[in-house]
Specification:
alpha+beta, ten-stranded mixed beta sheet, six-stranded antiparallel beta sheet, 9 helices, 16 strands, 34% helix, elongated
Length: 309
């Protein structure tokens, strides 16, 4: 089978059958109007993203489009990185945003509400080699893990928010309500974590509220990061007083996070971090029971990604 001219389209729906059906119908109309040749598969879970991505790779598709959010794209990228270099070199990976945050999509200007523009850009087939971050750690459940990320790794507070959002979503049903409620809960549930961080010949050994290591902008916490620079941006945040915490949230939402006095930025190719109790989030998904030291580094220009014209 020669699938060089057809897209392999991996659709990762949001929660809610009715909303998902309408979203796909809208996107399908756009694709058909532009005469795009594609084969469509739909995921049902995280495990099925990896299984379907493997199927598309082994069936010879050279253009694979993920219709999903940051976590779905992360699953697809990690599946791709398990393949031989020759497979990675021939595959061009694209994204149509369909998630809760869509942070990596927003970096490039892809808009979930503008499928026409996104599809036109993908048809233009402008390819750029981009970096991936890589985190290596040991898990209590699964042994040694190597996980790649396009956007960021969060250790501490932001990972706590992800955890609370997951719990709130089970109760509230709505992703947006769950996110807002988790932020409110964190105002009364902040933590410091004892961390030891080695970055650029400097050792930080103290209580830290949160760390973000970004290959891209890291949900606003590494706003200067560029996913083709060959470097990671790191924001280490110490625990500010209450008023400064609210100020920090405001600066985060207005894109001026690095201006906060409690934020200490670095730029590096690799670092290590150790924290016994802090949660770890990788592109929006929690790592399962990590232990010991995390080794994080950049893998420069390692995958082909379709970017806007």
């Amino acid at each position: 089978m020669n699938n060089n001219d057809r897209w392999g389209l991996l659709y990762c729906p949001k929660k809610g059958i009715h909303e998902s059906s309408r979203r796909w119908e809208r996107l399908k109309r756009t694709l058909d109007e532009r005469g795009v040749l594609y084969d469509f598969v739909q995921s049902e879970s995280t495990d099925s993203v990896e299984r379907l991505m493997t199927m598309l790779l082994h069936n010879g598709y050279t253009t694979i489009i993920i219709v999903g959010g940051d976590s779905a794209l992360n699953d697809a990228v990690n599946c791709l990185m398990h393949e031989e270099k020759s497979v990675r070199e021939r595959v061009h990976l694209g994204l149509i945003p369909n998630g809760v945050m869509n942070d990596f999509a927003r970096y490039w200007g892809f808009d979930e509400k503008n499928d026409a523009q996104t599809v036109d850009w993908l048809i233009g087939h402008r390819v750029r080699k981009i970096d991936l971050g890589r985190i290596s750690y040991d898990s209590k459940d699964s042994g040694h893990q190597d996980r790649y990320f396009l956007n960021c790794v969060n250790i501490g507070l932001t990972a706590d928010i992800m955890h609370l959002r997951r719990q709130a979503r089970k109760v509230l049903g709505s992703s947006h309500l769950a996110f807002l409620s988790s932020l409110v809960l964190m105002l009364f549930h902040r933590h410091d974590y004892k961390m030891r961080i080695q970055v650029n010949y400097e050792e930080i050994d103290r209580m830290v509220m949160t760390v973000c290591i970004g290959s891209a902008r890291g949900y606003g916490q590494t706003p200067s990061a560029v996913p083709y620079s060959g470097l990671l941006d790191v924001s280490v945040v110490y625990n500010p007083p209450g008023r400064q915490f609210l100020e920090g949230l405001w600066l985060l939402f207005t894109g001026r996070f690095l201006n906060h006095r409690s934020v200490h930025p670095y730029r590096t190719r690799e670092l290590t971090c150790e924290s016994a109790k802090a949660r770890v989030g990788i592109d929006g998904r929690l790592a399962e029971h990590p232990t010991g030291e995390y080794h994080i580094r950049i893998e420069p220009e390692i995958i082909n990604f379709l970017i806007p014209n």
